[in-house]
Amino acid sequence: MKGSKLYVGNLSYSIGENDLRDAFSEFGNVTSVNILTGRGFAFVEMETPEAAQNAMEALDGKELDGRKLRVDEAKPQQKQKRGGFSKGGDRKDFGKGKRRPRW
């Protein structure tokens, strides 16, 4: 495992930061907990990659508040493309006085 940040999925919406911190602190120092409200998942960052690995192995599939957790290494956030033209056409030509001929 490379990093110390974990993805925690299948969370009950009633789970709080302290609940996650308590569950993960058994395996090492928890440096941050970020729950995405209303989404059913969170990110937990451990102090060391070893602590994160141990927590992942121990807690993946374990039940917390009636739900089986899914714990995995967090993947780096990918940048999303912006703009409204996903297929065809080239945005750079739009709105610059260039019109398509009306045949």
Percent helix range: 10-25%
**CATH class categorisation of the domain at 5-72:** Alpha Beta
Strand content: 25-35%
Structural class: alpha+beta
SSE string, helix = H, strand = E? EHEEHEEE
Round the mean pLDDT to the nearest integer and report it.
87
Main beta sheet, described? 4 strands, antiparallel
Shape: elongated
State the strand order across the main sheet. 2-3-1-6
Q: Would you mind describing this structure in some detail?
A:
This protein has 103 residues and is of the alpha+beta class. It has a domain at 5-72: 2-Layer Sandwich (Alpha-Beta Plaits). Helices cover 19% and strands 25% of the residues. It has helices spanning 17-25, 49-59, and strands at 5-9, 30-36, 41-46, 63-64, 67-68, 70-73. Strands 2-3-1-6 form a four-stranded antiparallel sheet, with helices on one face. Strand 2 and strand 3 form a beta hairpin. It is elongated.
Task: Walk me through the topology.
Layout: E1 5-9, H1 17-25, E2 30-36, E3 41-46, H2 49-59, E4 63-64, E5 67-68, E6 70-73
Antiparallel strand pairs: 1-3, 1-6, 2-3, 4-5
Give a short synopsis of this structure.
The protein is an alpha+beta fold and 103 residues long. The protein contains two helices and six strands; from the N terminus they run E-H-E-E-H-E-E-E. It has a domain at 5-72: Alpha-Beta Plaits, CATH 3.30.70.330.
Considering the chains and any ligands shown, give keywords for the structure.
four-stranded antiparallel beta sheet; alpha+beta; 103 residues; 25% strand; single chain; 2 helices; Alpha-Beta Plaits
